[in-house]
Amino acid sequence: MPGVPTTTSHPSSTRPVLIAGGGIGGMATALTLHQIGVPCIVFESVPELQPLGVGINLQPNAVRELHDLGFGNDVLDTIGLQAREWALVGRNGNEVYAEPRGLQAGYHWPQYSVHRGQLQMMLFNAVRERLGDDAVQLGQRVVGYRQDANGVTAIVETRDGEKREVTGSLLIAADGLHSAVRAQMHPAQPPIQWGGAIMWRGTTPGVPVRTGASFVGVGSLRHRVVFYPITPPDPATGLATINWIAEITVDNQGGWQQGDWNRRVALEEFAHHFDGWNYSWLDVPAMLRGARDIFEYPMIDRDPVPTWVDGRVALLGDAAHVMYPVGSNGASQAIVDARVLGAQLIAHGVGPQALRAYDDQLCKDISALVLRNRGSGPFGLLGLVDERCGGVFDHIDDVLPREEREGFMARYKAAAGFAIETLNAAPPTIAPGQRVAAG
């Protein structure tokens, strides 16, 4: 192939699984493949991994999988905080809904609020320790592929534009929102979808509220602030690191005009939207002012595609199902994807049949979750309140009865794969000691 001077080949019996992308999904896939005895190589486009990002939540279904990969609570406690509560509060400060989370809710595993970058680095360091330093090749991006009956060839490009070909048994594309593999697999896919919501994100030292480990959303469906601690309080100061997201929804007819999908902004660009948001237990303007760095993001996703698989190539994580961050399950689902893939490789061997089974198990249901999150996910409760009373109420039961609120949340948890009874009763995705059969 012109412009592709180097080919790295492996005997068919030892060809590794090739993984495009070294984010949370890619690293979870590498660790899973190592656990079940399948060699792999990760290609990551950045020249050096750094703990970038802000706070995210890991649901109990993903924490269970991390436990099974060897990351117990003792390890996870070093990068985050076990969440105890999820709560919505109306713009006038009155509670809409609250429920316990994680162990307090009866799950066998906690929910964690963590720093995304620290989670990625934890997984990355484990990949290097368990698989070797050569298992992750930095500064290299998978830009395309071709395949035949015997294997797949990834076209890998370095940061200086040089290309080479690497052969493998399968290609797993965990290369995110702008996945080159997804673009080749689905060349007619629509552009990135932006529904009009703009998010500003930062972290601020502060005193945790309510349980001390609560995820709290305040405001309305189209105008809200979400915040939660991602560290325990410092013993000396009593202050934790509070991750916050301030959000408004605007007219999206003109499309996203800023150009950058992630840019540093000044407080003055958006703080006026939250003037007067002061409560006895929360001073929103002060919380926003306390951040050292603030970043702006559009809330975006992609329309679902009918399949995540093309022969020996599969999409995983955001490459398969980038979704609105309203249900705290984007990173969680990427981890679950990796584990389901591993289970299907055990069941069917390292080949296209396993990828088809993975696709059959997840694609339809998670594509529906993408659309459910686009329709506001669990924050849809605030939308119901807005519709019925304009967001102003004295007693929520007069507006939205408890049974209706609880039913709404139960349906969401079932769709997202972390209904309590179902998850607690489920056997391990990959049982201890299970490996892919040799040959």
Describe the protein's architecture and organization:
The protein has 439 residues and is of the alpha/beta class. The chain is 30% helix and 28% strand. The chain contains twelve helices and 23 strands. The strands form five sheets. An eight-stranded mixed sheet has the order 7-6-15-16-17-14-21-18. A hairpin with a 2-residue loop joins strand 22 and strand 23.
If helices are DSSP runs of H or I spanning 4 or more residues, what is the number of helices? 12
Q: Sheet with the most strands? A: 8 strands, mixed
Count of extended strands: 23
Give the percentage of residues in beta strands.
25-35%
Amount of helix: 25-40%
Q: Ends: how far apart?
A: 31 Å
- What's the Cα radius of gyration? 22 Å
- Structural class designation: alpha/beta
**How much is the average pLDDT?**
91
Enumerate the strands of the largest sheet in spatial order, edge to edge or round the barrel: 7-6-15-16-17-14-21-18
- Described by the principal axes of the CA atoms, the overall outline is globular
Q: Uncertain segments of ≥5 residues (pLDDT<50)?
A: 1-12
